[in-house]
Amino acid sequence: MKIRLVEEKDYQRVLDILNEAIAARKFTAQLSPATMAMRKDWFIHHSAPRHPMFVAEIDDQVVGWITLTEFRAGREGFRFTSEVSYYIDSRCHRKGIGSMLMSRAIEAAKEIGFRNLVAVVFDSNISSRKLVKKFGFKLWGHMPEAVDIDGKSIGCDYWGLKIEK
To answer: Any residues with CB less than 8 A from the CB of 84 and at least 6 apart, and which?
Structure first.
């Protein structure tokens, strides 16, 4: 498996993986499929050094991705905090891809100078809860029934990691 920075040639595959997660209705609060037009600025943002996107590749096929995203955009006081988001092709779950991506994202966060990483995880997403705990994230907050997906209320947890220099 290879972990590398996203390239323009990967954009459609990144969207395909995101849209698979959207369709599953249990990993993201985004409910409408993402299009290239909708995500153009997002891809540009994640091509910049401060907020990179990494992809996991197996046999030249992108099978997952992770981003470091600006936390609470426009609020300078959060400049040392980044949100980490990740999605894995469902055919590749439980193969260590999330761990490899998370490890690279934490390494990048240290290099960039972030002091905190935040992962927003549905309280029902057991795999993601296990992943963030594995990397030392602590539960920093819980929003009960904050998300509504097709009439079903889901709690949302904020997991935080203090970045050691």
So the answer is: 66, 67, 68, 69, 102, 105, 109, 117, 118, 119
- Given its phi and psi angles, is residue 161 left (phi above 0), alpha (psi -120 to 50 degrees) or beta? beta
- In angstroms, the CA 116 to CA 146 distance is 23
pLDDT in tens, 135-148: 999 999 999 999 99
Report d(CA 120, CA 162) in Å as an integer.
15
Tell me the pTM.
0.94
Cα distances (Å, whole numbers) of residue 38 to 33, 42, 74, 77, 91: 10, 8, 20, 28, 26
Strands 81-88 and 116-122: parallel
Q: Please count the structural domains in the chain.
A: 1
Per-residue pLDDT tens for 60-101? 999 999 999 999 988 999 999 999 999 999 999 889 999 999
State the CATH number of the domain containing residue 45.
3.40.630.30
